[in-house]
Amino acid sequence: MNKINMKLGQMLIVELDEEVILGELIHVASDNTFIKLANVRDIATNSLLGNQAYYSSEIRNIQIVDDAKDDPVSSAEHTPAPSPHVKHLSLDCLNEALEMVKNCIYIQQLDAKYHDAISVLKKERTLAISMEGVEEGRHAKSVSLISIATSSVIYIFDIKWINITKDLRDLLCSDRYRRVLHNGRLMRDVLEHRFNLVLGRCFDTMVAHIAISKATNDNALADTAKEPPGIIPIQTCIACYLKLPENFFNDNVNYDLRPTSNEAKREAAKKIAFLISLQ
């Protein structure tokens, strides 16, 4: 286990070999060989696991989400102070994001659900935007989904079925809105050359990440700055700035299959759930 100052009552994110869980710390072995957590939840699937024990050999990393007022139960040394650019999600913010992912609204036809979504989105001024299937830009074989989120709800539009409607064009183009996205270069290329659409004003979290990486002396950020521009995934930024583990995401999802699987909807929602928090 990494060396952190653990206290009973803390909410922890524990990164294991094949899953990431959230739970309340209720016991730490005197020799730090295992911990027990209550109300454990798999944060990738949002499924409840009850009370669980985890041994140090299976734990890759631990992050404190919400602190406790108890005296420490471990005298392990503190981790270094975080970079001033690094944000830590509060428990409330994490739970809200996971609820948004769980309750994301998938839209594949121009029905009442679609019109309700457009009505909600048009009242906003800041929107998070993500697209699936744009990795090759204008040469992408199949552009699949457009996800648009507010600070409280995520909508996933299946543009294989409904294309990019006039309403969606307005949300993507109009300067009434400020959009938060990641690696907008690819999205812009697809929209311009495949849909004859010019994306409006945006805040690009990848561009911000590169700028911060060049300006900081923080080694963790400097390492990612060495990556070639254009290939820094949203997963890396979320892990770096919001301190969520990269394996929170499943990169092996096929967004092109129809009907769209619940896993594909969930992964698309996870990519956009934290974008507004990153700006």
From TrEMBL:
Keywords: Exonuclease, Hydrolase, Nuclease. One of its GO terms (molecular function) is nucleic acid binding. It comes from the Eukaryota. It holds the Pfam family DNA_pol_A_exo1. One of its GO terms (biological process) is piRNA processing. Residues 113-217 form the 3'-5' exonuclease domain. One of its GO terms (cellular component) is PET complex. This is Putative deddy 3'-5' exonuclease protein. It comes from Anopheles triannulatus.
